[in-house]
Specification:
4 helices; alpha+beta
Length: 135
């Protein structure tokens, strides 16, 4: 006998499998637009699409009856490509802002890192560093 709980679990698993299809899956509903792949996830009105750039998912956009939107601004776009481009632009600006606001490690902290883990910029900082010793 199949219990209602096991039936629900099976349906949920099948639903999740369909939602999480990669853009390379032959069963995935994929739209390709100007350097992006949109993979249909779910929804009727609005339809949800995962946006891929190269092989990485960058976010989600939504197809409404009269327009497209993304989750990062309150604009309505006539075309899916516009919503995807603005999503990508937003993420690029956010990435630059995050990187610029991060504090660089001190030279002493760099000396504690594994040599193989140092970047070329960190090596240059260490070359210029003169350790101040107390005598």
């Amino acid at each position: 006998m199949i219990s209602p709980l096991s039936l629900e679990q099976t349906q949920l698993k099948e639903s999740l499998d369909k939602i999480l299809l990669p853009p390379t899956d032959p069963n995935a509903e994929v739209m390709e637009i100007l350097g992006y792949k949109l993979v249909y996830v779910d929804g009727a009105c609005h339809r949800n699409y995962r946006v891929y750039k190269s092989h990485s998912m960058i976010g989600v956009i939504f197809q409404h009856i009269t327009h497209w939107s993304n989750g990062v601004d309150s604009f309505r776009y006539a075309e899916s490509v516009d919503a995807a481009l603005r999503l990508d632009d937003f993420l690029n600006v956010a990435r630059v802002s995050t990187t610029a606001s991060e504090q660089l490690p001190t030279q002493e902290e760099l000396l504690d890192k594994e040599f193989d883990a140092l970047t070329s910029d960190e090596w240059e900082r260490l070359k210029r560093y003169v350790h101040k010793r107390k005598i």
